[in-house]
Design a protein that fits this description.
Distance between the termini of chain B: 41 Å
Oligomer: heterodimer
Distance between the termini of chain A: 36 Å
Mean pLDDT of chain B: 93
Structural class of chain B: mainly beta
Radius of gyration of chain A: 14 Å
Structural class of chain A: mainly beta
Number of helices of chain B: 0
Low-confidence stretches of chain B: none
Chain lengths: 115, 112
């Protein structure tokens, strides 16, 4: 299993540009998440999904959109990029199968700079 | 909603000494408390977790304690080694809930 795969690893955007961060998992996990991690800070939840066709906002959703058309893929869309969106973005997934399956599996992250 | 506070934000200890990181949570319904370790430039990884039906859990040199009455839990690392240098995150959620709330992280440095 590849686990959780994120692309790209690095990206520089100009203010106002748009882009999509890709996330795919091959563990058949129902739950998927997008977090951002600002320098020296913790993980803030942007959006999450509990299954194909279902998404919900996290703590910091403004400026982002997501979709979940398949169990495997959970792309994050940035529209009109702003310097405040400079961050490291982590995608994560986990099984929905009860109390013994709460471990989050993280992707390797995308370092995004908006200049 | 749940709020998790983590202290200290940075911690420096001599190799071989012990390190303790503390977290408090706000929602008394929370009953699942994992700890994640993030090495420099790497992804966070689960190192240990505890559920509210136990007060302490150990795994080799790491242990987690939970005080439900005071709503705080702690990570203890004994006999620290250079490879323990990393950022550690605590988190809390209601067991089976869809969302995990993370603390702000602690940067632990082990000095040789």
């Amino acid at each position: 299993n590849a686990g959780v795969t994120q692309t790209p690893k690095f990206r520089i955007l100009k203010i106002g540009q748009s882009m999509t961060l890709q996330c795919a998992q091959d563990m058949n996990h129902n739950y998927m998440y997008w977090y951002r991690q600002d320098p020296g800070m913790g993980l803030k939840l942007i959006y999450y999904s509990v299954g194909a066709g279902i998404t919900d906002k996290g703590e910091v959703p403004n400026g982002y959109n997501v979709s979940r058309s398949t169990t495997e893929d959970f792309p994050l869309r940035l529209e009109l990029a702003a310097p405040s969106q400079t961050s490291v973005y982590f995608c994560a997934s986990r099984s929905s199968g009860g109390a013994t399956n709460e471990k989050l599996f993280f992707g390797s992250g995308t370092q995004l700079s908006v200049l | 909603g749940e709020n998790v506070e983590q202290h200290p934000s940075t911690l420096s200890v001599q190799e071989g000494d012990s390190a303790v990181i503390k977290c408090t949570y706000s929602d008394s319904a929370s009953n699942y408390f994992p700890w994640y370790k993030q090495e420099l430039g790497k992804r966070p990884q689960l190192i240990i977790d505890i559920r509210s039906n136990v007060g302490e859990k150990k795994d080799q040199r790491i242990a987690v304690t939970l005080n439900k009455t005071a709503k705080h839990f702690s990570l203890h690392i004994t006999e620290t080694q250079p490879e323990d240098s990393a950022v550690y995150f605590c988190a809390a959620s209601i067991q089976g809930a869809q969302k995990l709330v993370f603390g702000q992280g602690t940067r632990l440095t082990i000095n040789p």
